[in-house]
Design goal:
Blueprint (H helix, E strand, L loop, with lengths): L23 H8 L5 E3 L10 H10 L12 H11 L6 E4 L1 H13 L5 E6 L4 H8 L3 E6 L8 H7 L4 E7 L11 H14 L2 E5 L14 H8 L2 E6 L12 E4 L2 H10 L7 H10 L3 H24 L3 E3 L5 E5 L3 H10 L2 E5 L8 E5 L3 H15 L6
Parallel strand pairs: 1-11, 3-4, 3-5, 5-6, 6-7
Antiparallel strand pairs: 2-8, 7-8, 9-10, 10-12, 11-12
Helix pairs in contact: 2-10, 3-10, 4-5, 4-9, 6-7, 11-13
């Protein structure tokens, strides 16, 4: 064995890199296609408001200087929006940027991170990168996170419990009462609850309680949010978390100094003011989600109800269907990438993109080998 092979961190042995949704450019280049749509990465497909586009364009005119390392304006805008102190707001390059720094700031070698599976794969990667041990709790037939199951999996070494609410890729949520009970029990165990709310802005279910509300009640939880979904700033990589002040102080020691660039910071501040855009996006996305669920069910496809901007569908030979869709210029996310063999995760695109997906899938389902 070369000594270079021994340089790799032991905790990362056997772990595969995260596999994101395929870029449109890759599919166009590899398959020689001109028209490709991407329904794999849970992005917001709707055009940005003109004012927000102008802020981005103006900010991009001067990129010679480093951005504000403390993201002063953004952190204060977020603190004002959520009614917390700026010292309780941290920012990073998307949810993953915040997550990696948060785990480095809180975890020691041998600590345990508990989470349900399947869920967002980067929880495992970020935990292992910090030298922690991962404790995975299967979701079960309901495909929804369970407070009792998470608590039962905790031991005295469990330092962090991560909960994606609503969960990716199942789209299910944990109810208000369950979340409050879980947070209270973990508080008693001195275990930090981290709630990833990447899809919170899409939720309209009255059983849902915002993690920010939970933070205001208990304080000793961490709430992750992002500008990559409903706000439509995925390429600019802006995420943030609301955390206890002491956690924020530790986070400041390990965060990447210029993690969020100037364009991203200014765009995020402006995006917070686009409440009408957010409301309209939510309304249109939910309408498309319900329409698509009905059409797919009519085709005989099993559709899992979700509280997000994507649908989880089950069908025979899902990976092959995903590949055939790809050759038809439609990128969806194979469930096998996310620990859900036999499923596809389909993001809600523009109405015409969704129609194209349904038409292509209908064509494929008529083939004998797909039945």
């Amino acid at each position: 064995m070369s000594w270079l092979e021994r340089l790799g961190r032991k905790a990362l042995m056997g772990i595969e890199p995260y596999r994101p949704g395929k870029p449109i450019s890759d599919v166009q280049r590899d398959l020689g296609l001109k028209q490709v749509i991407r329904l794999s990465s849970n992005e917001n497909p709707w055009p940005l408001p003109e004012r927000l586009s102008q802020v981005i364009s103006t900010a991009a005119q001067d990129v010679r200087r480093y951005p504000d390392p403390g993201a002063y304006n953004l952190r204060r805008a977020l603190a004002k929006k959520w009614g917390v102190s700026p010292s309780e707001v941290v920012v990073g390059a998307g949810t993953e940027g915040v997550l990696f720094s948060l785990f480095q700031a809180t975890l020691d070698e041998g600590d345990e991170v508990v989470y349900c599976t399947p869920t967002y794969p980067l929880y495992r990667l970020a935990a292992c990168a910090a030298g922690a041990r991962c404790v995975e709790v299967p979701l079960g037939d309901a495909l929804a996170p369970g407070a009792d199951q998470l608590l039962s999996a905790c031991t005295p070494k469990s330092k962090v419990v991560v909960l994606c609410n609503p969960n990716n890729p199942t789209g299910a949520l944990i109810s208000r009462n369950e979340l409050l009970a879980l947070a209270g029990a973990l508080e008693g165990r001195e275990t930090l609850l981290v709630v990833d709310e990447a899809y919170a802005e899409y939720v309209v279910d009255p059983r849902y309680v915002s993690g920010v509300e939970l933070f205001r009640q208990l304080g000793n939880v961490a709430i992750l949010r992002t500008f990559s979904k409903i706000y439509g700033l995925a390429s600019l990589r802006v995420g943030y978390a609301i955390v206890p002040k002491l956690v924020g102080e530790s986070y400041a020691k390990v965060r990447r100094v210029f993690d969020v660039n100037r364009v991203g910071q200014e765009a995020a501040v402006a995006a917070l003011e686009e409440e009408i855009f957010v409301e309209e996006t939510r309304t249109k996305t939910i309408a498309e989600r319900e329409r698509m669920a009905t059409e797919l069910t009519t085709l005989g496809v099993k559709v899992i109800p979700t509280h997000t901007n994507f649908l989880l569908v089950f069908l025979a030979d899902a990976d092959r269907v995903a590949d055939d869709l790809l050759h038809d210029g439609i990128i969806v996310r194979p469930g096998s990438d996310l620990g859900m063999a036999g499923a596809l995760r389909v993001s809600m695109g523009l109405p015409e993109e969704n129609d194209r997906f349904v038409a292509s899938l209908r064509k494929q389902l008529k083939r004998p080998e797909k039945r």
